[in-house]
Design a protein that fits this description.
Elements: H1 3-43, H2 47-50, H3 54-68, H4 74-87, H5 99-105, H6 111-124, H7 128-140, H8 147-160
């Protein structure tokens, strides 16, 4: 028996399992937050009223935090609501992005910009910090670059590589 190979195989299996588990957990988190966002919009009386109905979110936040613990503050519930509103026409397909990535993309509001950054994160495997830096740098270039041109440029790179 080659113990080194057995040890190596065992460690590789474990790493693969952790990646699959992380992927499944992330996908579950994104689906859950999308669904919570949908329920919040419905509870607030639809999309138009949801834009102004933060009182309900404050109430739910206090109750959820008291009963379930941290992670359900007003900001996070608002992000879940906005996540649903941005992606209600189709669930996000970029499961390799995690909730931290999406919380940095949600404030952008422009679905074209969000999709641009989703592709960038997916292709370049950017961390949350790297994404923040890319967003910051693009804001510095605002007005100097036609955003649609940049989007099509990156789409061509992603298509041919």
């Amino acid at each position: 028996m080659n113990y080194y190979d057995e040890i190596k195989t065992t460690l590789i299996k474990n790493e693969n399992y952790k990646r699959i588990k992380d992927y499944s957990k992330n996908k579950s988190d994104l689906n859950t937050y999308y669904e919570v966002g949908r329920l919040l919009v419905e509870a607030q009386g639809g999309e138009e009223r949801a834009k102004y109905g933060n009182g309900l979110i404050k109430e739910y936040s206090a109750r959820l935090t008291g009963e379930l613990g941290k992670g359900y503050n007003v900001t996070n519930l608002k992000n879940m609501r906005q996540f649903y509103l941005l992606f209600q026409k189709g669930r996000p397909v970029a499961d390799q992005l995690n909730w931290s990535h999406y919380t940095k993309l949600i404030p952008l509001q422009d679905i074209d910009k969000i999709n641009y950054y989703i592709k960038m994160v997916s292709t370049l495997n950017l961390s949350k910090r790297e994404l923040i830096e890319r967003i910051k740098n693009n804001k510095l270039l605002k007005g100097k670059i036609n955003f649609q041109f940049v989007l099509s440029f990156y789409e061509n790179i992603f298509t041919y590589n």
